[in-house]
Structure formats: structure tokens, C-alpha cells
Amino acid sequence: MTLQDLGDLGDLIGGIAVVVTLIYLAVQVRQNTALITAQTVQASVDATQRVLLFRAENAPLRAVIRKARNNQDLTADDTEVLASYLQASFMNFQARLQHHTRGVFDRSINESYELILEDYLQQLYVRRWWHYAKPLFGEAFRNHCEGIIAALADGAPPPVADWNAAVGFRDPTAPRPP
User: Fold this and answer.
1) CA nearest neighbour of 9 among 23, 17, 25
2) Nearby residues of 91 by Cβ (< 8 Å), 6 or more positions away
3) pLDDT tens for residues 37-90?
């Protein structure tokens, strides 16, 4: 075997090593991308759960929401509490929409968030807040929410027609109180 043959063999082995290294790196990048995607989805789910648990565990906030749902006058403190809660909720929805647009959220995860957003936007007090708060959000998210509101106004059914009946608080066949 000549020195030239050894050089050619070295080039061949080097080429194979480069291909193997590129394949290895491609696998590592794919695994890293999957891990980052999973972490992003989990962080978003965690944020949503924190917002919902805050509402469930915070009696003063629930009282303010009840007043708003019943179209009762809100104090300045009530308004601040409600606006802050809705801003946090809608910032989360906006981030979710951005993640979905970028392909981070698959269809099933996005569908759940979409239904929760629709449930919020079916509430009159939320739509009143949205009317004034929408300049705080990005154009794509504003347009998305406006589309949901328009669909609800055109008669689209709400995701949950009656929460009290859904959780067993009231018999769904019983007549609704006035």
C-alpha cells in the first residue's frame, strides 16, 4: 500500500466520519427541539393552571367576577382586580396563539385553549373589558378575539352553555331562575 493509497483511505474514513457526525448532530438537534417544544407547552399549561387556580382560590376575585356577571356596579378596587385578572388571562391566551401560529402547540392543545378563550369572550363583562383593553394586545390576537366575538354575535353556540348545570349545581332540566 502506497502513501497515496493511505491518503485516499484517510480521506474516505474522514468523509465517513463527517457523515456520521452530521447524522448524530441532526438527531441531537431533533431531540433538543422536541424537548424545548415540550418545555414550552408545559410552561404554558402551568401558566394557565396558575391563572385558573388563582381564580378558584381567591374569594374576593370570585366575588368581583360575580358582581361583573350580574352587571352590578364595581368599586375602583373591584375594577382594578378584575382588569388585572383579565389582563393576565388574556396575556396567556395571546402567548398560546403565538405558540400555535409558530407550530409549537398541536391542534388538540390549541383547541382546548381556544374553547376556554371563547368561554371568556361569551361573558358580557369580559367583552366590555376587551373593548377598552384590546389596544394592550398584538394585532393578530386582537383580530382573533374580534373574530370570536363576531361569531358569538352571529349565533355560534358558546363552549359551555350553562356552567351551573355542567358542574351539577343546578338540574339542567329545571327552569332557569329569572
Assistant:
1) 17
2) 137
3) 788 778 888 888 888 888 889 999 999 999 999 999 999 999 999 999 999 999
CA distances from 108 to 29, 35, 105, 153 (A): 25, 18, 8, 25
Number of domains in the chain: 1
Dmax (CA) for the chain in angstroms is: 100
- Residue 175 domain flag: no
Q: Is residue 54 part of a domain?
A: yes
User: pLDDT tens digits, residue range 68-83?
Assistant: 999 999 999 999 999 9
User: Scanning the structure block, which residue is given the C-alpha cell 388571562?
Assistant: 89
**Burial of 170 (C-beta count, 10 Å sphere; 0-12/13-18/19+):** middle
Q: Is residue 15 part of a domain?
A: no
Q: Residue 91: inside a domain, yes or no?
A: yes
Q: Which residues span the domain enclosing 88?
A: 43-162
- pTM for this model (two decimals): 0.74
